[in-house]
Amino acid sequence: MITLEQRLERQRPIPSGFTRASTADDALAGLELTGRRYLITGGYSGIGREMTRALARAGATLVVPARRAELAEEALSNIERVSVLEVDLADLGAVAQLTRHLLTEGKRFDGVIASAGVMATPDRRTVRGTEYQFAVNHLGHFALIGGILPLLTPTESRVVMLSSAGHFASGIRWDDIDFADTPYDPWLAYGQSKTANALFAAELAERGRDMGLHAYSVHPGNIMTPLQRHLSMEDQIALGWVDASGRPNDSLNLKTPQQGASTAVWALTAPALAGLSGVYTQDNDVAEVATGMDMVLGGVKPWALDPEQASRLWDHSMSVTGIVPKI
User: What is 137-158 written as a DSSP string?
Assistant: First the structure.
């Protein structure tokens, strides 16, 4: 079993030849993806739509699961080779239904980008009593990706999990994952879910090594997108994200959606990452280990790569979802 020290040692920039200012089109320049087929959750809004657009422009065929299918179809109507399938990641029954549909269809995927997510939502539970952000951001993706593993092309497929510098806020709260016994904190809940995304990628990389499956986690950077929809203007001013007139704070070093989409498509396709499955990436490169709490600077906290935490989360996720990934 890989150790935490070995994982942290691998968190060194390559360098990739790209920068934080590179766009998704830049990251895919020169690649011919005709005949490649990818699944992108959340691929119709914000940076997810930019991932879909850039990959389609490079020749790929995309499948976009979406909670609001009609809205997704409208948003993607001018992009070629894209199909939309309806699913609510918070509803494990709906995820199972989508999984069955895809398995019955039997078409292979060359990769998955788990871009869908929610942030800092009000206190909300699924019908099973699971905290909503953990359910959507992690468990729904665990069930979906775990369920369609037989469709991932052997020796070539990549799974890219969208994490965030928000993972700085919390590791996995084993004593109370669902905030059943402690007051709900939307930022701790978000941070926990983003740590879970990184741990899932790291564990999937280890368990999928023999079948040639690669997995990576991604911090896309600071971007103003619909992900902020649960935050009022007053909240954003209090957080220092915008000033009183609603203008973004320059110190946040914001990216455009096109720039924010770049690291995910780079992780999905870059040949330079082939021998680095399991790493956490940002700004189109392997991220360094974070020694401070500066989320603008970013990097990855050790708890988001810890093998023991990752294995424990895998077992917990199987227990909650009932999914046993065939790997």
Answer: IIIHHHHHHHHTGGGBPTTT-E
Q: Give dist(CA 47, CA 116) in Å, integer.
A: 10
- pTM, rounded to two decimals: 0.93
Q: Which of 38, 44, 132, 190 is catalytic?
A: 190
Q: How many Cβ atoms are within 10 Å of 325's Cβ, its own excluded?
A: 20
Q: Identity (one letter) of the amino acid at 122?
A: P
132 is catalytic: no
Contact at 8 Å (CB) between 85 and 98?
yes
| 177 close to 199: Cβ distance less than 8 angstroms | no
Amino acid found at 251:
S
- Note whether 163 and 194 are within 8 A (CB): yes
Helices 140-147 and 307-321 meet at what angle, rounded to 10?
A: 80
Q: Distance between CA atoms of 239 and 253, rounded to whole angstroms? A: 15
CA–CA separation, 171 and 177 (whole Å): 10
pLDDT of residue 56: 98
Q: Is the distance from CB of 147 to CB of 89 less than 8 angstroms?
A: no
**Cis status, amide bond into 15, omega within 30 of 0:** yes
H or E element in which residue 7 lies: helix 4-9
Q: In what order do the strands lie in the sheet with 61-66?
A: 82-86, 61-66, 37-41, 111-114, 158-162, 214-219, 280-282, 285-286
- The pLDDT value recorded for residue 202 is 98
